[in-house]
Design a protein that fits this description.
Layout (H helix, E strand, L loop, with lengths): L1 H6 L2 E2 L7 E2 L6 E5 L5 H7 L4 H11 L3 H7 L13 H4 L5 E6 L9 H13 L7 E6 L4 H7 L1 H16 L1
Length: about 160
């Protein structure tokens, strides 16, 4: 959700057109994140639970899924460029474990691919992937890799 939040102004409620500005952070750490809802469904086509989760959260309209996905413009449905929507951004660290059995690594690599295509006009923001270890819930439950990701983000922010 952090990446979605900095990509656009925060909506005050589901289905609301009311947008409210908020102070955006200088850095975001995405951990085991879902950045492409259509891709999530498509890469898990043999497991209906993935589509059920997306439909239950966002409804059946794939255009809504695209709008909620930071990688939405990869398929030609550009929302707002991250550099434009998050000019104060200095770091986007995407942490993902290849051992994650629920969220595929293409979520992380796809986001970095989109950001590479978009370019970083100001060269102010650093986009980086950090490969962490552990299964999906293990990352959260044990916290060791989560701590490593946060520590890396702090280190990178201090270096800039």
């Amino acid at each position: 959700m952090a990446v979605q939040a900095v990509m656009r102004r925060w909506r005050s409620g589901v289905g609301s057109d009311d947008e409210t500005d908020f102070v955006k952070p200088v850095g975001v750490v995405g951990v085991e994140g879902i950045y492409d809802l259509v891709g999530l469904r498509d890469r898990h086509a043999d497991e209906s639970v993935y589509e059920e989760i997306v439909v239950n959260a966002f409804g059946p309209d794939e255009r809504v899924w695209e709008a909620a996905s930071p990688t939405g413009w990869l398929r030609g449905k550009h929302i707002a460029g991250l550099a434009e929507a998050w000019p104060e951004g200095r770091l986007l660290l995407v942490a993902h474990s290849p051992e994650d059995e629920l969220v595929e690594k293409e979520q992380a690599t796809g986001l970095l691919q989109v950001l590479g295509l978009e370019g970083n006009a100001s060269q102010q923001r650093r986009d980086e992937i950090l490969w962490i270890n552990g299964k999906h819930d293990q990352v959260w439950e044990e916290g060791v890799e989560l701590t490593r990701a946060i520590s890396r983000a702090i280190e990178l922010l201090h270096a800039t």
